């Protein structure tokens, strides 16, 4: 009996091992060809794709059209699935492969009819422009076709990739538009709610076009909008450095229970560095006070439109906020506070309570990097969590913050950074998150990502060639 059990276990284990090896072999088959020669249709002359040790390609060709083809070829080799996700998102076609789960997102984008717009743009191109885009699309499809096995994501989804169309390149542009813009005019709607209720001078104060800290390229300095007086507005119910000063003044009346908090603020690192606790505390204080004051000042709007009214806090709200906190007008103080200092001290207690509830350990462990941690995931890792450690980038603490030169957050950051002086390219630098390849088995999948996280100066120019793939034109009939 024991022998039969051992045989069954051995057989099951063998089948599992063979299946795992077969899966590994198939996934590995979608790795791109990096060296050698390949004959492809669509080229006029030979072109080369050279890659350095980071996997960064240098494309060489005789004509602009051949360069476009070879560039598309490299993209199709390395990142076709990611490209497919971008075009499908813009066109509202994700549900074709992800099913009903993607329908809400598709409906959101179909509203703009971007594929029809892309097709219309194609009709306006010159012959030269169209030839270059056609060559790029042909290169993408040739790069995809050069893979022994379709990209592994399609194996998991049990789908076949659709060829890249010339118009799809325009869809990528629209996808970027959607990412960088207010696609449904939410800001205008939110401002409209406030403008429909507040007196004109109050609205102008809460939503100024600019402040004295702005430096217009045209015209003179922007005039500060005066604070509304008690007759206009009664509601009785820049820099983080000055916020730190304000916070320390507030903490002077905070009592012994805030001694650790006060010490961390006093000894802060005045930068959005990952290991700064004081920066996080001062920032949280500013955000809490900002939210509380804005909620109080917009009480009349919610009285009209309801408590759930989605109101926009202007990017220029810092000016009216700071004027309130420094001048401390009695007629704008919410009725449930005895003073503006009491309101700010309550904000400190709210933050301390939130940190104690959400995190374990001492307050000194609450670094900025703990909150500002990179969260860069592969598009399908949520559906296959057992592969997330293999597919996703590591969770790493990030320096930087919104509205800073190093603008990055857990789910937002520069897709590329570079600094170069013309004529001195050898001393330039470049960063890119993740890596040059979209294939987790590629040595370039994460290569260079650590430099992006830490800010280490990766070179702007490519290094010595480590791989060279020559594309040769197929014979024409």
What do these coordinates show?
This protein is mainly alpha-helical and 477 residues long. It is built from 19 helices and six strands. It has helices spanning 2-28, 64-91, 95-98, 103-110, 114-122, 127-145, 152-157, 168-180, 186-195, 200-206, 240-251, 259-266, 277-297, 299-305, 318-327, 340-358, 368-371, 388-391, 449-454; strands at residues 36-40, 47-51, 57-60, 417-419, 429-431, 467-473. A four-stranded mixed β-sheet has the order 1-6-2-3, covered by helices on one side. The chain has a two-stranded antiparallel sheet with strand order 4-5. A hairpin with a 5-residue loop joins strand 2 (47-51) and strand 3 (57-60). The protein is elongated, with a radius of gyration of 28 Å.
Would you kindly provide a brief summary of this structure?
The chain is mainly alpha-helical and 477 residues long. Helices cover 47% and strands 6% of the residues. The chain is built from 19 helices and six strands.
Helix content: 40-55%
- The gross shape turns out to be elongated
N- and C-termini, Cα separation: 69 Å
Strand order of the largest sheet: 1-6-2-3
Low-confidence stretches: 234-238
Query: H/E series, N to C?
Result: HEEEHHHHHHHHHHHHHHHHHEEHE
**Backbone CA Rg:** 28 Å
Count of DSSP-assigned helices: 19
Report the major sheet: 4 strands, mixed
Structure summary, number of beta strands: 6
Keywords for this entry:
477 residues; mainly alpha; elongated
Record the SSE blueprint.
Elements (H helix, E strand, L loop, with lengths): L1 H27 L7 E5 L6 E5 L5 E4 L3 H28 L3 H4 L4 H8 L3 H9 L4 H19 L6 H6 L10 H13 L5 H10 L4 H7 L33 H12 L7 H8 L10 H21 L1 H7 L12 H10 L12 H19 L9 H4 L16 H4 L25 E3 L9 E3 L17 H6 L12 E7 L4
Parallel strand pairs: 1-6
Antiparallel strand pairs: 2-3, 2-6, 4-5
Helix pairs in contact: 2-4, 2-6, 2-8, 5-8, 11-13, 12-13, 13-16
